[in-house]
């Protein structure tokens, strides 16, 4: 089964026991995938209040409990209780959201990461890809890899 082969290959690419944070978590799929692939724990947030119930429900369907996944609602770009709850020291920060939000997040993400952490961005429509890439570089990120599929872009930054 090619699906199982792809899962096994991806699992080998995720270092064990990493700590992941997801901006714009929505259904929780990216945090859940990271946890299923070996991440130790994940913190996910979204401005939509529905994210909490939906993400926890999806996590439970995948055998993941609240001991490994924390989901909160709010704007983590603003100083305050949510930002404090998220904390720092993440190995990976993921943002699968619209270009404007990625552009505004780019200068702030390092606060959440370990010194050698990764910032993965996706959900970038092709006509905004160059603009987002320029904003990432202007914020001090090095784009290590760029991926595209069906008019959507992803940048892996360090």
The share of residues in helices is 25-40%
**Spans where pLDDT lies below 50 across 5 or more residues:** none
Derived structural class:
alpha/beta
- Per DSSP, the total helix count is 6
SSE run: HEHEHEHEHEHEE
Ends distance: 34 Å
Strand order of the largest sheet: 3-2-1-4-5-7-6
| Range of strand content | 25-35%
Largest sheet: 7 strands, mixed
Radius of gyration: 15 Å
The outline comes out as globular
Task: Note down, in words, how this protein is organized.
The protein is an alpha/beta fold. The protein is built from 6 helices and 7 strands, in the order αβαβαβαβαβαββ. A 7-stranded mixed sheet has the order 3-2-1-4-5-7-6, sandwiched between helices. Strand 6 and strand 7 form a beta hairpin. Helix 5 packs parallel to helix 6. The longest helix is centred in the first third of the chain and has 12 residues.
């Amino acid at each position: 089964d090619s699906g199982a082969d792809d899962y096994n290959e991806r699992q080998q690419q995720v270092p064990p026991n990493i700590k992941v944070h997801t901006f714009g978590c929505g259904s929780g799929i990216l945090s859940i995938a990271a946890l299923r692939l070996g991440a130790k724990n994940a913190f996910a947030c979204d401005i939509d209040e529905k994210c909490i119930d939906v993400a926890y429900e999806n996590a439970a369907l995948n055998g993941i409990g609240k001991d490994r996944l924390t989901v909160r609602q709010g704007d983590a770009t603003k100083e305050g209780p949510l930002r404090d709850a998220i904390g720092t020291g993440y190995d990976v920060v993921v943002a699968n959201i619209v270009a404007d939000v990625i552009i505004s997040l780019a200068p702030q993400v390092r606060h959440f990461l370990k010194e050698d952490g990764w910032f993965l961005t996706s959900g970038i429509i092709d006509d905004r890809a160059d603009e987002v890439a320029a904003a990432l570089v202007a914020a001090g990120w090095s784009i290590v890899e760029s991926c595209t599929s069906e008019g959507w872009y992803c940048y892996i930054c360090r």
